[in-house]
Amino acid sequence: KQPTLTMSDEEVEHVEEEYEEEEEKPRPKLTAPKIPEGEKVDFDDIQKKRQNKDLMELQALIDSHFEARKKEEEELVALKERIEKRRAERAEQQRIRAEKERERQNRLAEEKARREEEDAKRRAEDDLKKKKALSSMGANYSSYLAKADQKRGKKQTAREMKKKILAERRKPLNIDHLSDDKLRDKAKELWDTLYQLETDKFEFGEKLKRQKYD
Asked: What pLDDT sits at residue 62?
């Protein structure tokens, strides 16, 4: 739908005046072209030339159109090639990144396995050391218990011997019938016995100390 033009009355009058002035101007007289005498006008040839001209112009338009179309197709092919190239580059970059990530994960897994193996080896060595230490302690403890039992047996034997000696030496004193000289002799005998007992006690204590250190 074409737009409707609205003109004012003054504009309409102005147009009418210009049209009337054009009408009043004298028009040149047109005369038909003179055809040379003796020559025949070939209207078919003229028409043919016009058709050829029109065909040439049309062919030029068609060639221009196809040239533009060819250029567009070449640009489209180039664009597709750039897109494919860019897509291939992105795929290659993704492949490289995936390969690097795979290598990184493999390194992490190998490092983890190595640490776990070292930890397991260290724990096994620690357990072996503990077992050896406990075994050594057990043997030493058993030896210590045997020596302690032996010492207790020796102490018990020595104690029994001491009791026996003391029992033999403990005799009831019968001094009621003794004279003064006899009493002095008896006192000297008791003193010598006490001195000997103290000497035996000291020597026995020293002997026990040596056995303890041994």
From this structure: 85
